[in-house]
Specification:
The chain is an alpha/beta fold. It has one domain: Rossmann fold (3-Layer(aba) Sandwich), CATH 3.40.50.300. The chain is built from eight helices and five strands. The chain has helices spanning 21-34, 49-59, 68-92, 103-113, 118-129, 144-154, 165-181, 195-212; strands spanning 9-15, 39-43, 96-100, 136-141, 186-190. The chain has a five-stranded parallel β-sheet, with helices on both faces. Helix 1 (21-34) crosses helix 8 (195-212), helix 2 (49-59) runs antiparallel to helix 3 (68-92) and helix 4 runs antiparallel to helix 5 (118-129). The structure holds ligand Z5A.
């Protein structure tokens, strides 16, 4: 009889700009790899070659501003490609995929932030993800002004970062609403704490959940 195949899974890291998602997603992949698992770091938008082209279109400050509906569909085109070309096949072979943003960002930004109808966003996102869903999600919760200050210290603002602060506050509330509705999947962490402290908590929570999966 063949040995039991390792189960793959998707773990996601979410939150407002500058909350530390990229930092924490990378730390989680390091911790998973150190524990002997195949761990893959990816992000949205831009986890595939097509996705990187879409990312440039979405975040450029010059050129035509996309209508909210067009913006939604571009994020979901990126997701559809990402799930089918990278995330799905990696999970299938038993890898743990850590994504810096996924569907919760679409709900928070396009539904709560932009005001597109929540149910419509959910339905099209379901189609784009094709059944792939996170086992566990970490929402890094931070005052958007603090997050934007961190992000601005690293380079010039992109199109989304240049939105008014009220938009970023709605996005934060959106993430909180998602967490309140899915307490079994979503863990909210205070992102104003030191990087190492947050990384330890994320790694231990992820290991426990993966062992129980
Ligand atoms: N978007 C959307 O609207 N709909 C969607 O469906 C999806 C995305 C998928 C691009 O995302 C944009 O797309 C994003 C949402 C939208 N809007 N914007 N803007 P992105 O993830 O590429 O962009 P971002 O959120 O702006 O990423 P970021 O600025 O790189 O932030 P981050 O990844 O959360 O943070 P970081 O790079 O890890 O850290 C930023 C700085 O803070 C850096 O100097 C760190 O060293 C520092 N840092 C990190 N953690 C800490 C702590 N704990 N203390 C102090 N300093 C820290």
């Amino acid at each position: 009889m063949s040995a039991r195949r390792a189960r793959g899974a998707l773990l996601t890291v979410e939150g407002v700009e500058g909350a530390g998602k990229t930092t924490q997603a990378a730390r989680l992949v390091e911790a998973l790899a150190a524990s002997g698992r195949e761990a893959l770091l990816t992000r949205e938008p831009g986890g595939t070659a097509l996705g990187r082209d879409i990312r440039r279109m979405l975040l450029a400050l010059d050129g035509e501003v996309p209508a909210p509906e067009a913006e939604l569909l571009l994020y979901l085109a990126d997701r559809a490609q990402h799930v089918r070309r990278l995330v799905g096949p990696a999970i299938e072979r038993g890898a743990i995929v850590v994504a810096d943003r996924f569907s919760d960002s679409t709900i928070a930004y396009q539904a709560h932030g932009r005001g597109l109808p929540l149910e419509t966003v959910r339905v099209i996102d379901d189609f784009a993800r094709g059944g792939v869903a996170p086992l566990l999600t970490f929402v890094l919760d931070l005052d958007p002004e603090a997050g934007l200050a961190r992000a601005r210290a690293t380079g010039p603002a992109d199109r989304l970062e240049s939105e008014e602060i009220a938009f970023h506050r709605r996005v934060r509330e959106g993430f909180r609403a998602i967490a309140a509705a899915s307490p079994g999947r979503v863990v909210v962490l205070d992102a104003s704490r030191p990087v190492d402290e947050i990384a330890r908590e994320i790694a231990s929570t992820a290991m426990r959940r993966l062992e129980g999966a």
